[in-house]
Amino acid sequence: MVSELTLAPPAPTWKLAGSAASAWRKPWFLAASAVLAVLLYWMLTNSTPAVLVYLWTWSPALLRGLSANIGISILTMALGTAAGLLVGALSFSPLRLLRVATRCYVQVFRNAPVLVLIYFTTYLFPFEVRLLSWTVPFPDWIKVVLGLALPASANVAEIFRGAIQSIPSAQWEAAHSLAFRRSEIFLLIVLPQCVRRMLPPWMNLYAGITMSTALASLVGVHDLVDAAQIASNTVARTDFTILVYFTLLGLFFAYCYPIACATRALERHHDRH
Amino acid sequence: MTVIDFHTHVADGDAAAPLVSLLDVHLAFDANAVLRGINLEVRRGQAVSIIGPSGSGKSTILRCLTGLLRPQRGEVRVAGTRVDALRSEAELIALRKRVGFVFQQYNLFPHLSVLENLVIAPMRVVGCERAAAERQARELLDKVRLTDKEKAYPGELSGGQQQRVAIARALAMRPELMLFDEVTSALDPETVGEVLTVIRDLVQDGLTCVLVTHEMRFAEEISNEVYFTEAGVIVEHGSAANIFDDPRSERTRAFLQRARGEGKRGRSVNLPHPLPLEFERLRFAF
Asked: Which of A89, A144, A261, B92 is surrounded by the most beta carbons within 10 Å?
């Protein structure tokens, strides 16, 4: 009994040592420790390269710019999804006129360059809207959201239409013979299967739209690209300009890569079921 | 909800009238005539098989019975309802609550578990409580010998298991009439037997069944009445013994000979009688 007790404690330390040893071999852990070591060396010897100091001081402005891109992308997808589902549903309308109209909408906005659409909405809408005695400003970033939501909604409509059509007609037949109403079949049988099929392409679209938000800087929205341009002009050093645009790449990647990973995980999950 | 008595031949006052009758039914898809004057009758408690070559309109007959297809001419009566005259969704739903349909490709709802597949229609269409619907679903799973599969998803089951779930799903609506559309044609030979066993049980319980099938031996064993169709017409019909042992029509004779001959060639092992049965399979022909 006593000997067992005395023998027991060392086991956990062995386990800890084992997990630490395996963590050492992980590439991410190695890279992070290397970066940390370099930073520590610079801080201790006070020899940090000037370009990194500039990047550090400009990083809050850059992150604020990124938050504008993220905000625009989320709003665009919310708006585009709502409009796209509506347009997609209308494309099944018994009215020929509605079907043709939705078809045109989808074709026009899926095949238009995003930048043209952003210029289009920017110059089409006024700076401010007058409602009775109120003057409501119509900021540029909302115009960008609208400009991006047009192709987003056309794509969502197409994704939705494709998903509904991909549900075999046998599912409708089976549900009909179980005495479901058409509306019940759509809501209980077809739509839940559509959601699963739509999610991967929808997330691809989300990543694509997020990358397109970089165009917002061209119509004067203070986004990440705009912040980088201001920083680069202010600091006016070639090495900083290069570094800041690499940082931009890294930031967009850090936002879009997890979306792509989640999409692939969903596709794998879909395959299994 | 009325409890359906499977032994309806004693319960129903109008037992003399057939449960299903087709009178001179014509149906064409555009210029393509599929049914060219079908006459058919099924009495309560009977098992009726429809046999015949592929493309002879067998499945189309079943689809007319439950209003999935509407004939251009003729009368379709099911349990006193003129199915060919139904127009509104409510009327069709009233009919379909009483008729179960099992498909060749099972057509289970892939996003729902086995249990959910079985309870969704009783709950949403009939308005059963979940607890009651689940209790009934478990009883039906026992009946089709899938007691332990209620949490599985259709994609995780074999073809034979999926087909038995599909049968249980149709039974969950407590139909008076069950239609089986080539339910074993998509299955591996090993799993055909388990599905036929379930159907045999239903027939023995007295449930009225109409089967479209290529399993000649099975049709012969369970059917009260067999119809042979070819090119959209009923060539002949009669008791199983009549059709299989002593067909009047030369065309029936030729079809049966072909079906049996190919069945023998397609199967190398002779399975012991009585169970599992030996099933001739037309699709091995090609």
From this structure: A144
With CB atoms and an 8 Å threshold, state whether B124 touches A173.
Answer: no
Could you tell me the pLDDT band of residue A23, with boundaries at 50, 70 and 90?
low
Residues on chain A touching B122 (C-beta within 8 angstroms): none
Q: Give domain status of residue B187, yes or no.
A: yes
Q: What is the CATH number of the domain that holds B206?
A: 3.40.50.300
Residues in chain B closer than 8 A to A169 (CB atoms): none
- Tell me how many degrees the CA angle A121-A122-A123 measures, rounded to the nearest 5: 95
Q: What's the Cα-to-Cα distance from B100 to each of A258, B56, B65, B66, B221, rounded to whole Å? A: 47, 22, 10, 9, 22
CA separation for the pair A248, A144 (Å, rounded): 20
Residue B244, in any domain of the structure: yes
Domain limits, chain A: 72-215
Q: What is the total count of domains within chain B?
A: 1
Q: With an 8 Å Cβ cutoff, is B122 touching chain A?
A: no
> How sure is the predictor about A145, in pLDDT bands with cuts at 50, 70 and 90?
very high
**Tens digit of pLDDT for each residue in B100-157?**
999 999 999 999 999 999 999 999 999 999 999 999 999 999 999 999 999 999 999 9
Q: Which fold has domain A72-215?
A: MetI-like fold (1.10.3720)
The residue range of the domain holding B201 is: 8-98+175-285
Chain centroid to CA A238: 31
User: Which pLDDT band, with edges at 50, 70 and 90, does B226 fall under?
Assistant: very high
Q: How near does any CA of chain A get to the CA of B38, in Å?
A: 22
Task: Provide the whole-model pTM.
Answer: 0.75
B125/chain A closest Cα distance in angstroms: 6
Tell if the CB–CB gap between A273 and B103 is shorter than 8 Å: no
